[in-house]
Amino acid sequence: MLRVSLLLRSGGAARRFSSSFSGASVLPPNLLLPSNLVDPARLKRPPPPADCPLPLLRKCDAAVPSHLSPVQTWVETLQRPDGEPLGLAQLHPDVFAVRPRLDILHDVERWQRNFKRISHASTKVRSEVRGGGKKPWNQKGSGRARHGSIRSPIWRGGGVSHGPRGPTSYYYMLPLKVRVQGLKVALSSKMAQDFLHIVDSLNIPTPDPQYLLDLVRHRHWGDSVLIVHVGDEFPENLLQATENLKTVNVIPAIGLNVHSMLKHEVVVLTLDTVKFLEDKLLWHDQRYTPLYPFKLPYADFP
Amino acid sequence: MSVLGGLLRAGASFCQSAGTLLQTARTISTGTCCRIRMHAIPELKKVDRWTEKRSMFGVYDNIGILGDFKAHPKDLILAPCWLKAFKGNELERLIRKKKMVGDRMMAVDRHNMEKRIRFLYRHFNRIGKHR
């Protein structure tokens, strides 16, 4: 019995050992796949090779540390529905290739959910419930249990003894550098998972929402798209197209945050947005600690 | 219990030799089953995850970092004025409310609030281990 079980175990180990030799894409024989499954290996576009003929449209403005190299990505366009890239762009590694700190992402996401939260749940205590000042019956003689008021918590219609009390706030602030690092980690994670796309500008040929949906479907971007742009002016076509779309949303670059990046599957940035974000997020790596809040004037900031 | 009945029926399907005896067993209820009765599994409520509020949640939370520190995320909070950018236990909240809004309150509400402050002060500072 022991020899039979040993043989069985060695057979399973040999099968697993041989599968590790034959390559990365060996599927188990008993796997059932649905017929309309899209193959993710086909969808992942490879990063730009070193000898790519397309022009380099953007270099990093800030100095890149010598032990790191800039991240290279494709720059695409929304004008044409096909997915041919226009050129390459270099992104700063200290913003887009940071370590994927999931604990910082969790902290920032929890902060975003809770710091604005005001719970208006409120109950009345026995002293606040209307009535109940008089002793309902004499202490002795009536045969019933002794009570002092009809609004005590053991009575029906009485006050709640340990219930929620009035509007409560759950406000707290994370340190500034933690929130900045959360943004950097979120951007790096989107870049590493191939969900970040750089676009030269947001001009679209038609204000038709179906054009955007077809473009997203054709390029296999994902279910939901977050488009980020610097400045106040957005192209009219884009605003009209995204007005009635639920899963494609446009926000200004000041509104970028970890929760929106996690909620939307794909994040689309323009080249100006990348410059703006790098500028804002890299400053915190080499700034002095504030002597007074940053909203008061400093000689060298902004 | 209905659980016992189910087990009996399962047991009956396995042993076929004594099947005739066990198949006639009835479910025994001792009257202590839970009172919620459901004829079917209730449907999940349909929640739209992409409403305007849900898809735009959290936008402008980093307005300080990305907007030159002219505004602070605490300016975005929608709250009564004595709770904006403030966290405290019940006594601290009530004292702050009395300081900021007390002279605008209705007489009954103010009286109740003062009674509650008095009670909580005595509770926290005179009763229990932590004074």
Structure, described:
- The complex is a heterodimer of chains A (302) and B (131).
- With 302 residues, chain A is of the alpha/beta class.
- Chain A contains 9 helices and 9 strands.
- The model of chain A has no long low-confidence stretch (mean pLDDT 89).
- Chain B has 131 residues and is mainly alpha-helical.
- Chain B has a domain of 47 residues.
- Helices cover 44% and strands 0% of the residues of chain B.
- Chain B is flat.
- Classes of the chains: A alpha/beta (302), B mainly alpha (131).
- The interface between A and B is large, with 43 and 38 residues.
Question: How do the helices and strands line up, and which of them pair or pack?
Answer:
The complex is a heterodimer of chains A (302) and B (131).
Chain A: H1 2-21, H2 40-43, E1 56-58, E2 71-76, E3 87-91, H3 93-96, H4 102-114, E4 118-119, E5 168-169, H5 176-192, E6 196-199, H6 209-218, E7 225-229, H7 236-243, E8 248-252, H8 258-263, E9 266-270, H9 271-282
Parallel strand pairs in A: 1-3, 2-6, 6-9, 7-8, 7-9
Antiparallel strand pairs in A: 2-3, 4-5
Chain B: H1 2-14, H2 19-23, H3 52-55, H4 63-66, H5 90-101, H6 107-126
Helix pairs in contact in B: 5-6
List keywords for this structure.
heterodimer, A: 302 residues, alpha/beta, 7-stranded mixed beta sheet, two-stranded antiparallel sheet, 9 helices, B: 131 residues, mainly alpha, 6 helices, flat, disordered N terminus
Oligomeric organization of the protein chains: heterodimer
The shape of chain B, in one word, is: flat
Query: Strand pairing plus helix content of chain A: what structural class?
Result: alpha/beta
Backbone structural class of chain B: mainly alpha
**Strands side by side in the biggest sheet of chain A:** 1-3-2-6-9-7-8
The main β sheet of chain B shows up as: none
Counted by DSSP, the helix tally of chain B is: 6
In percent terms, what proportion of residues of chain B is strand? under 5%
SSE order of chain B, as H and E? Answer: HHHHHH
- Helical segment tally of chain A? 9
The share of residues in helices of chain B is 40-55%
Output the radius of gyration of chain A.
Answer: 30 Å
Regions of chain B with pLDDT < 50 over 5+ consecutive residues? Answer: 1-7, 10-15
Arithmetic mean pLDDT of chain B: 84
